[in-house]
Amino acid sequence: MNQQLSAKMPTAGLKLSLALMLALLIVPAYVVAPVLFAELTSAQAGLIAGKIFHVSNLAFLILCVAAALFARRLGVTKATWYLLLAVTLMVAINVFAVSTMMTMIKTEAGDISLLSKEEPLRWAFAFWHGLGSILQLLTSILVVTLVMKNHQKVPDTSELTAG
């Protein structure tokens, strides 16, 4: 029984890693952020959302490592590796480049919502925010693809308990 269970662990580990990665993309961006911006001032919501995105993206990168370890053990296809690499790079770009630029602009400009529409810093912030949003959406789609690609028949639990 223990041998059967340990043989199925990498598959379960990969599925769990991918599911958590998807949740870390979807929940902050499409559940939490809209609620924050609906209930708080733009500056407050942006500050909190930025912190949530930072933490969830770092957790996402850790899960990418876990998924890669499980994928290696399973000997997944090259396509899966390319997708995993792509989502890792896109989130890393979002965390270490896009978010950094947005923080620098907010530090210089203060509350973005108070800037005039012609203000170059407002346009720069909008550009980086838009780029981050596009990366977030594309990454979400690719992780859904990974989840669907690596979906396999769930083993019958009686197989695991049969002696």
What is the element layout, followed by pairings?
Blueprint: H1 2-39, H2 42-74, H3 78-109, H4 120-149, H5 157-161
Helix pairs in contact: 1-2, 1-4, 2-3, 3-4
List keywords for this structure.
163 residues, mainly alpha, 85% helix, elongated
Give an overview of the whole structure:
By secondary structure, the chain is an all-alpha fold. It starts with a helix and ends with a helix. The protein has helices at 2-39, 42-74, 78-109, 120-149, 157-161.
Order of H and E elements: HHHHH
**Which bin fits the share of residues in helices?**
over 70%
Structural class: mainly alpha
Shape verdict: elongated
- Number of structural units classed as domains: 1
Largest sheet descriptor:
none
Mean pLDDT: 90
Provide the β-strand percentage band.
under 5%
Distance between the termini: 6 Å
Radius of gyration: 20 Å
Number of helices: 5
Uncertain stretches of 5 or more adjacent residues: 153-163
Care to count the β-strands? 0
Condensed summary:
The protein is mainly α. The chain is built from five helices and no strands.
